[in-house]
Structure formats: C-alpha cells, structure tokens
C-alpha cells in the first residue's frame, strides 16, 4: 500500500509523492474535476526577462524539451489514465501554451473527450519579449473538456455571470500573474495564481467535490479547492514541491489566514464576495455507509459501538485514501448477496470516527487474509429497529457506473445518499 506523503487534519487535502503514471492506476477513487498543469516542455535554454533581469526560461529537468513525439506520447499516456479516474459527469481543465496545447487538444479528441471551451488567460502583467522579434507573449490557454460526449457536465453559469458584471462570462479571462503574498511558502517555478484556480473550481464543481491534480507542484489547485470547501488530491514527483504544498495547506488551516487569502484573490467584484458565496452554497447531501455483517455476529451488534469493514484487498491501493467513506454520517448493516437478496438488518448508528487499522491491531482478525480494515466507531452502541429490515434494491440505490455498486457486491463498505435510503424505507412501508 502507498502511504500518502501528506494528509491534512481535516482529511480534505492529500498529497502523493511519485510518478503520476505509476500512481494514477493505484487510486481507487473517481473525481468530480481534474485540473492539470502538465510540463509544457518549454525549457530549451532560451532567455526571458523577469523583474528587469535576463534569466533562463528553463524550469527544471521535468520540463526539458524532448520533441513532438515524446510530448504526444507523454500527453496520450496521462490523459488516458486520468479519464479512468474521472466520474462520468466530470470535467478536466488543462493549461498550456503553444509548446503543448496543440498536442493536448488533438489527444483529447482522439480519446473521445468533448472539448467545451478554450479559455485564454490574458496576463495583466506579462514580461516583455526579450528578442524583440515577436509580439509580447501575454496569454496562456486552458482547455476545458468533459469525459463523455453524451453525459452533461456541471457549469455554474449564474456565478460566472455575476462575476462578470451580470453579463455572460467570456472565454477570455484577464487576471494578473501570481502575486507576492502567494509565495509565502517559497515559490514553485511555474506556480499558477489562485485567481485562475478559484474561478475554475467555482465554475465547475459543487461544495465538497473531489478535485485531482496529477502534476500538483505547489498545489495551487488544492489551496483554491480547500478555500472553496472542496476536497483535493495532488501528485508530484518532487519532494521539494510537495513541501511547498504542505506549507500552503498548513497556512490556511488557520481560518484567519484562509479568510485573508479569500479577500485577496482577484476576479471578484469585492473583497467579501468569495467568502460570502461559499457560506451561502448548499450543504452537501448526507450519506450513509452500508456495512456487511455476518449472520453469527448480528446478535452482538447492539452490545458494541465498533464495526470493522474490509478495506479493499488490493496491495496496490493508496492507504487511507477516503473512497468517500468519510462522507458517511450513519452506518447501517446489511446481509444477503451471492444469489440471495440484499437486505438491511435493522441495525444502525451515528458515526463518530472512521480510520484504517492493520489486522494485527484488531482482536480476532490477526490471521485474516485482509491486511487493513476500516474501524468505524459510533457515538453509541448500535440501535435496532425492526421496521428497517428491508430489501435493498441495488439498482434503485446506485446507478450502473457507481463504484459503490461494485463494492456492495464484494461485501465492501458502500456509500449511498441518505435520501435514497429514506425513499426505499418509505416505499417499502406503503
Ligand atoms: C507546471 S508544474 C505545476 C505547477 C502547479 N500548477 C502550481 O501552481 O504550483 C508541473 C509539475 O509536474 C511535476 N511532474 C512532472 N512530471 C511528473 C510526473 N511524471 N509525475 C509526477 N509529477 C510530475 C513537476 O515536478 C512539476 O512540479
């Protein structure tokens, strides 16, 4: 199992260290949105001007220009892997310049993504052109695409219009490059401004959404996500950059700093608009965890407030990555399956805490084939209500592509919306 490089206390910010190509297949989770700022492959030993000084354009080894074939292969490989990690209605944003953006556009089409927009980020403060043989390079492109041609995506039309003086938001965004206050944890060589990422997050996700960045650098995506009450997983090869990411997250764990940053981010009509907007957003839907309970253990449930789920039996998975399990408010137990009907046993309880525990630490499970379990602690002992002994109609609870549908068939913890269970209980009592 892979241990996260960093997991925040609020479990809303995860970092993995390693090659994104190795790690993406090892994450058993589907995301609502992806932002990727991949290497542009523009480090060709050229020169530019920064703060009035002539400097090299080189960003680091990871950005070395290696020719079109290499760039195409690289982009095809990660865009294929990332599609597998996206929910069916998820969207992806990819930033670039002339060095990589044509390759990205071509491959998105090749892989059946649907391109929605090509945003032009017009920088208000670009460096002058050093050679004086070109127009000043003052823009970057950001392609917005969705996973499927036929599955609709989410677009926060009203907010975008509000941010644009009550006129439809256009695909040209005029925003400054990164400000001094964004470099408080040491700067990443290609750090994106929070104003761009905040607009992206708010335009394409709902509260609590999971956002993935496969080339996270200093995790501007994650900071924007958390400032907007969304959750985040970022991957980078370089420890140095992950340390910047971690420092930035720790900074905003202090609510005063977070509020201060929200006030400073460009792209809003006034200082308080970002903070006020997220306060007014609807709260996420409540979730219930369904846990399989063996027949012989059922009578003991009301004597305990602890329950163990099998964590997934696959050595490759990222240890302790949430799989939506931390969204659950209540635990209900079920039996059945393998040709028999699935049904709720009538036992339930409010969840106090969930964590992953090694079998060696659990009495009676030391010899189990499963290495890790989810330990669920309830506020009180399990309650029992025989009106809740009901058949679980799997097709009504989950849609076909819901990963939870597969989990329940393997007797793994599955997460379901609370109102779906309520509907089911009412229907069955009619
Ligand atoms: C353009 S930067 C991202 C900057 C980021 N958007 C920010 O605001 O800080 C790209 C990052 O991808 C990382 N990277 C490049 N190739 C990688 C790979 N194969 N696996 C993981 N990380 C990689 C680099 O270390 C670099 O930090």
Q: Explain this structure to me?
A:
- It is a single chain.
- With 430 residues, the protein is of the alpha/beta class.
- The protein has two domains: 6-280, 3-Layer(aba) Sandwich (Rossmann fold); 287-429, ph1033 like fold (Roll).
- It has helices at 20-23, 68-84, 101-110, 157-163, 194-204, 220-227, 239-253, 255-264, 273-280, 394-397, 403-409, 418-429; strands at 6-7, 13-17, 31-36, 47-50, 53-56, 86-96, 114-123, 139-146, 172-175, 210-213, 231-236, 287-292, 306-310, 328-337, 340-358, 372-378, 383-384, 414-417.
- Strands 1-2-11-10-3-6-8-7-9 form a nine-stranded mixed β-sheet, with helices on both faces. Strands 12, 13, 14, 15, 16, 17 and 18 form a seven-stranded mixed β-sheet that branches.
- Helix 6 (220-227) runs parallel beside helix 7 (239-253).
- The structure holds S-adenosylmethionine.
- S-adenosylmethionine is lined by residues 19-21, 37, 39, 62, 188, 190-192, 215, 217-218, 220, 235-238, 241.
Brief description of this entry?
The chain contains twelve helices and 18 strands. With 430 residues, it is of the alpha/beta class.
């Amino acid at each position: 199992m892979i241990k996260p490089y960093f997991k925040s206390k609020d479990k809303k910010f995860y970092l993995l260290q390693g090659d994104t190509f190795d790690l993406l297949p090892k994450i058993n989770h589907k995301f609502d949105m992806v932002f990727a700022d991949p290497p542009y492959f523009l480090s060709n030993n050229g020169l530019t001007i920064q703060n009035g000084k002539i400097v090299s354009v080189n960003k680091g080894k990871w950005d070395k220009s290696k020719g079109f074939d290499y760039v195409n292969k690289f982009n095809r490989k990660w865009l294929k892997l990332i599609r597998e990690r996206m929910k069916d209605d998820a969207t992806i944003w990819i930033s670039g310049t002339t060095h990589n953006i044509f390759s990205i556009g071509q491959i998105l089409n090749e892989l059946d993504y649907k391109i929605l927009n090509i945003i032009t980020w017009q920088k208000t403060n670009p460096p002058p052109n050093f050679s004086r043989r070109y127009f000043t390079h003052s823009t970057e492109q950001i392609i917005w695409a969705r996973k499927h041609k036929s599955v609709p995506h989410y677009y926060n039309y009203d907010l975008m219009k509000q941010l644009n003086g009550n006129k439809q938001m256009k695909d040209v965004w005029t925003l400054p490059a990164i400000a001094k206050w964004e470099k408080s944890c040491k700067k990443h060589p290609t750090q994106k401004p929070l104003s761009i990422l905040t607009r992206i997050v708010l335009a394409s996700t709902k509260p609590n959404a999971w956002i993935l960045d496969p080339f996270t650098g200093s995790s501007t995506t994650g900071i924007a996500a958390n400032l907007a009450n969304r959750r985040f997983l970022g991957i980078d090869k370089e420890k140095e950059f992950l340390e910047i990411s971690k420092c930035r997250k720790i900074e905003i764990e202090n609510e005063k700093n977070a509020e201060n940053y929200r006030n400073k981010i460009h792209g809003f009509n006034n200082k308080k608009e970002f903070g006020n907007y997220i306060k007014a957003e609807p709260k996420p839907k409540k979730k219930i965890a369904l846990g399989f309970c063996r027949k012989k253990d059922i009578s003991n449930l009301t004597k305990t407030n602890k329950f163990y789920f099998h964590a997934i039996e696959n050595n490759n998975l990222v240890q302790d990555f949430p799989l939506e399990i931390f969204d659950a408010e209540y635990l209900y137990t079920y039996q059945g399956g393998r040709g028999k009907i699935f049904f709720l046993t009538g036992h339930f309880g409010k969840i106090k805490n969930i964590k992953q525990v090694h079998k060696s630490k659990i009495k009676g499970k030391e010899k189990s084939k499963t290495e890790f379990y989810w330990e669920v602690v309830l506020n009180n002992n399990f309650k029992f209500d025989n009106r809740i002994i009901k058949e679980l109609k799997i097709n009504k609870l989950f849609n076909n592509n819901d990963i939870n549908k597969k989990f329940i068939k393997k007797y793994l913890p599955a997460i379901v919306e609370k109102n779906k269970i309520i509907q089911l209980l009412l229907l069955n009592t009619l």
